[in-house]
Amino acid sequence: MRKQNIRELSLQQLQEYFVKINEKPFRAKQVYEWLWLRHVTDFESMTNISKQLRTSLEEHFDLPAVTIDMTQKSKDGTIKTRFKLHDNHLVEGVLIPTESRQTACVSSQVGCSLSCKFCATGFMKLKRNLDFDEIYDEVALLNKQSIESSGKKLTNIVYMGMGEPLLNYKNVLKSIERITSTEGLAMSPRRITVSTAGVAKMIKQLGDDQVRFNLALSLHAPNDKKRSEIMPINETNNLKNLMEALNYFYKATENDISFEYILFKNFNDSLKDADELIKLYRQVPVSLVNIIEYNPIDDAKFQKPSPEATEQFMQYLGKNRVNARLRRSRGKDIDAACGQLANKDTHAHLEESENA
Questions:
Q1: Which of 259, 199, 201 is nearest to 232 (CA)?
Q2: Whose CA is closest to 6, among 41, 38, 37?
Q3: Which of 2, 150, 162, 187 has the fewest other C-beta atoms within 10 Å?
Q4: What is the pLDDT of residue 121?
Q5: What is the DSSP code string of 156-202?
């Protein structure tokens, strides 16, 4: 039988375990700090507890930590990392540095079930959900990467990597609880954004649960017809239901809501499309619309518009008092699109990480 993952135990459960084996309860606090605050990945590193106790923990518990499999480093400073899970599945995380921010983009599932037509992950089958401690590991490893590369800790976290976070609801929320805990990374929830392709029922659940993090809707099309063409989830979660759910979420939490809108050449980049986007913008208290440059992938037919078309789209939004920001494509010289690196042949031209 597989040993229990020790990180599944709460501090109280650890204390109960140590009392049961005739150890002092304060040992639980020491172990808990090693696991979360110091992020050790083996029992041998817990140097303030006895060798005998470390051996006992090794015999009774498992500590299946995420490891770095390989990395790609872009000329613009973006670092994309392929993580290996304990069962050899692969997921991605990205460190995106700017002058004012160090942002980690993390995955919540191995693959994805939503089959969005423009997304590399959408062409992968869903293998499984990530456990909360695996998501935590992604963030902790990217934080270490940030400190090593720039001397700065992470300032922001976005759940915009592989998978649909709201279809792994319990683990995503528990990972954020750990990340924001003073016994974890002590990140402010206001610095965390969860991005969803649009699961109306679970958006409302976020409101009911009074979450404190921000929410982003991956919109990518301004009407149901176009959105259903590229995002099959729209068939069961149409724009009317999503706008209603977002308003419900905002009324319950007053947390920031943003729209994510990738521009696709000759598909959603006309001024008519901009007009329809503006109408959606005015239905919800959206703080920001992120207009995103597309990173083309081999499996999809889409291309990014010309710089002139992009500029015209942005100017039109500005004239209509939409708070929009153009998010330039990062990591153009590496496998920057979500899912590309995790799905890539391990013998491709990748830089082996020193941490692998």
A1: 199
A2: 41
A3: 2
A4: 87
A5: EEEE-SSS-GGGGHHHHHHHHHHHHSTTTT---GGGEEEEES--HHH
pLDDT in tens, 189-231: 999 999 999 999 999 999 999 999 999 999 999 999 999 999 9
Closest by CA position to 342, among listed 290, 294, 297:
297
Q: Which residue range is the domain that position 168 belongs to?
A: 67-352
Backbone phi, psi, residue 257, to 5°? -120, 135
Residue 242: per-residue pLDDT: 98
81 pLDDT more than 50: yes
The CA distance from 291 to 326, in Å, is 5
Eight-state DSSP code of residue 237: S
- Which CATH number goes with the domain that contains 49? 1.10.150.530
For tokens 């039109």, name the residue: 316
Q: Which of 46, 62, 78 is the last residue in one of the domains?
A: 62
Per-residue confidence (pLDDT) for residue 84, from 0 to 100: 98
pTM: predicted TM-score of the whole model, two decimal places = 0.92
Buried b (16+ CB within 10 A) or exposed e, 251-262: eebebbbbbbbb
Of 14, 31, 62, which residue is a domain's last?
62
The pLDDT value given to residue 346: 34
Question: Residue 323 in contact with residue 277, Cβ under 8 Å?
Answer: no
Residue 299 has pLDDT above 90, yes or no: no
118 and 52 share one domain: no
The 10s digit of each residue's pLDDT in 154-184 is 999 999 999 999 999 999 999 999 999 999 9
Q: 64 near 4, Cβ under 8 Å?
A: no
- Residues serving a catalytic function are 92, 338
Map tokens 């990140």 to a residue: 187
| 90-97 and 351-352 strand pairing | unpaired
What count of Cα atoms within 13 Å lies in the side-chain half-sphere of residue 44? Answer: 0
Q: What is the pLDDT of residue 328?
A: 81
Q: Phi and psi for 163 in degrees, rounded to 5?
A: 100, 170
What is the SS3 assignment for 288?
strand
Pairing, β 79-84 against β 67-73: antiparallel
Q: Is there a single domain that holds both residue 336 and residue 314?
A: yes
Rounded distance, CA 58 to CA 31, Å?
Answer: 12
Give the phi and the psi of residue 267 in degrees, each rounded to 5: -125, -50
